[in-house]
Structure formats: structure tokens, C-alpha cells
Amino acid sequence: MIKRFFSIDKVHQFLQNKFTANREILLVCILYTFLFGLVTHSFMALNSSFSHDSLPELFAVNEWKLKLGRVFAPIYIQVRGEITLPWLIVLLGLVYNSLSVFLLTKIFNIKSRCMIFFISGILTVNVSSIALISSFIHEFDSYMLSILLSILSVYLWKRYEKGYLYGAVSLGFSIGIYQAYISVAISLIVFYFLLELLEGKKVSSLFKRGVTSIVMFVFGGVLYYLALKVAFLLTGIPVRTGAYNSLDTIFHMSFVEILYTTVRAYVNMIRNIIFYKSIAPRLIMFALQIILFTFGAISFLQLLLRERVKTREKLLSCFLVLLLPLVMNIIFILTKGFVHDLMLFVHWFVYIFLIIICRMAVDREKHHDLKFFNLQPAVMMFTFLLLWINIVTGHSVYLKKDLEHKASISLLTRVLYQIEMQDNYVTGETPVVFVGEPTTLLPKQNKFSPLYEIEGNQKTFIITRWGKRWKTQSTFHYLLNNPILLVEEEQWNAMQKDSTIEKMPIYPEKGSIAFVGDVLVVKLGESLDN
């Protein structure tokens, strides 16, 4: 019975046929993605400059992911390996990116190698990927897998008659790895409908597609919810609620707060575009964005004003254009505005949408009734400039991280020597607490100043504020190979505000490392909050 419905030979033949039919496009996607990826990210792939959240996650902490509702992330990490291996993680991430680019070519019927080149670059070299690899490298491959599964759900929905059911499964897994990337699937579907309307399709002909897309998201959400319940039954670890990074934020918001956050979502999208984070001067980036979006608007109007696009379709097309920033910021609304660069990966898809619209506007074979301006060469040129700036930004961030890592380890090595010189201190037995942030490190390097806006790059010290005790312990255990014993979290937080410690001098002054009761206090700076 099993052999009748499932055969290894049949599966092999199916995959072989698919690969043969798509080999050329797939190889081009892999080539361009790895070209951009290796040119930009090789430095971090070949080094171990761990900092920020990648410090405590050198060895995977799966309990925290389960509390955040990322139920499938621990399973993936168990398969990949729990140790953060930079080269392997970047390699896997680029493989997933390559497949994502390939699926995008299928969704939007892209055959041009030039288009594939730019889509590969946009998906591989952007602010979110740079932030991920510089400070959250342990998450890079799993997040890229989440994006791939989100794109796969849209491909299955578009490709097969019952694809919305298959897509729901893929979407459920994507959400279970990282919830924020549901916005990728929503944005792609809205953009797909926009292109269909600009092609001259009637609203009525797209109605069924619209219903099936909604069904796919509902089923995907149900599958994810069931996975949460199963994970709780198996592990006993509850999902975090009513706090930072929790899933139920929107349920604690009033209707007015939701409306206000929706308006802020639009503002956030515009701000991220206008104040694009990069090493380049802000005025240059602003001008570049204005040029690209002006060309995109012109191309959209060219398509919109054609005779084949009827009035109702024109109005709906305009509505979808206005809706796109909102769906690309859906996670902003769901979290009441708590977002960072990792969660906003979908923002960079807007540049993919721009080059597709501009390409569509000069496609003479499909749109021979169109009076067009051929803006595509200019759009490609300015998009390449944007990618080049992203590459330089990536290298600058990675150099910044490496220099800060070396300086921080040098400082902590000297501090550790002073700790071990204290009378009555026993390594691994005497409890220690660190207070404040180092004043001996430069607060900001002027040449790197634009990069401090990127998530995970706000400080020059590798141990950042949130989860400081956890990160401090990881630094000493993993990077200094020292079994330091830190006080428990509650006592750690209380001692940050202790009046006796406030009067202590700051390292490296004499008396900056001293006993307060039976706890050895190391005062690194005046910043006494956790």
C-alpha cells in the first residue's frame, strides 16, 4: 500500500525533472547570491567576533526560544548543531537565500539574469542581514529559512490548485521559526495582486485567489497555534505573555491604540526609507531614495494609465499601493511599535518590487499600447549604487565589531587579572557582580558614527545592556575560559542601584574592585541600570 502511493524512485524522478527544467535559472540564483554573500559577509563567516546577543547563544539556548513561541527553531538548531559555527551558518543562510531568489523568479515569472542579479543582491546584502550577521549570527540561517518558507508558501499558493493548503503548512513552519516574517508572505501576495491588476486582470477574476490566500493564512495560524500547544505539553515551558517580546501584545491594546500604531507604522516605513542606515552620508542616501521611488512612481503611473486597466482596477491598484507599507509593517502593529532591524527584513523587498514595476513598464511585448519612458537602465544603475553602499556598510560594521571585540576582551582580561589578585577570592566559588559599563572604552568612534543606529551596534562594549548578567557569564565562560561565579539575577539587579557601590571609584582606579559583604564588586562605570 505504501509503495503504491510513495516510491523513492518516483520522488527521485520528480526532483530530477524539476531540476533539469529549472537548472539554468537555479544555478544563476545560486551564483549571484553567493557572489554577493561571500563578497560582503566572508569576514564574519571566517571570524568569531561574538558580541551582543551572539555571546550567550554561542551554545543554543532553546528554552528562551520556546518562551518566545519560536517552537520550530530548537528543532532546526538540533539538526544543524547547537554550537554557533559562523562559516556553516553563513553558508546555510546563503543556500536558503538562493532558493528564496529562485522562488521569487517563479512567482513573478522573471527570466532576466540582470533582474536575478539585483534580486539576489537586495535579498542578501541589506541592513537586516548585516545586523543579523554582526550581532546575531547564531540566528542568521534559521531566519533565512523562515523567509524561504514564507516565500515558499506564496509559491505553492500560486502554483497549485490546492496550493493554499500546502502553503499553510509552509507558513506555519515559517511562523514557528520567527513570527515576524509572516509579513513577507502577506507583502508578496498583495504585490502579486497589484501586478495582476496592472496586467489588466479583472477584480472578479482575482476574487477566488483572494479568498484562498486568506484561508492559507488562517490555516497557517491554526497549525502554528497547535504547534504551540504541543510544545507546551512536551516541555512544560509556557509562552511568554504580557511582556517584552511576547506574542499577545495586540490583545492588550485598545482600539484607539491600534489606530495610532497603524499610523505610526506608515511613519516608520517612511522613516526607514528616508533615513536609510548606512556608512554613506545621509544626504546621499536621501537623494538616492528619492530618485528610486520617483522612478518607481512614474513606472507605476505608466502602467496604471493604460486603456486596458479599467477604472475599478485602477482604484484597487492605488489602494493596494497604499496598503503595501501597512502590510510590510504588520509586525509593527502586532507588537505596538516594538520592532528592530531583524524584524523589518521585509522592508528591503520594496526595492525588489520597484525593479519589477520598472521592468514591467518597459516590456514592449506585453504592453505595446503603452507610451513609456525607459527608466530601467537608470533604476538598475541606482540600485547597484545602493547595493555597493550596503556592501561597504557591511564591511564597516564587521570591522567595527572586530575592533570592539578585541578591545573588550583586552579590558576584561585585565579586569580578570585584578579579580584573581584579590585576597580571599576563589575562582568559581566567590560570587561576583559587575556594575556599570566601561568608561575606559571610547563611547563612539566618529568614523563609525552612522553605524551605531544599526541593531546590535549601539555600543562599543561587546556586553550590552539587556541580559547583561547572562552575557557577562557567557563572555567569561566561553571567550576567557574562566568559571567565574556571578550572583543570581535578582541580586545582580539590586546591586546595580546599591548606595554603597555608588560611592566606589570606577575601574581602573584603586578600590574599583572590592568586596561588599561576601560579594566581589567590579565597578566598570557609572551606568547603574541593568
From TrEMBL:
The residue range of the signal peptide is none
Q: Which UniProt keywords apply?
A: Membrane, Transmembrane, Transmembrane helix
Please give the start and end residues of each transmembrane region. Answer: 25-46, 85-104, 116-134, 164-194, 214-237, 249-267, 279-303, 315-339, 345-362, 374-398
Q: Keyword Nucleotide-binding: yes or no?
A: no
Keyword set includes Membrane? yes
Q: Which domain of life is it from?
A: Bacteria
Cited Pfam families? Glucos_trans_II
UniProt name for this protein: Glucosyltransferase domain-containing protein
Q: Can you name the source organism? A: Streptococcus suis
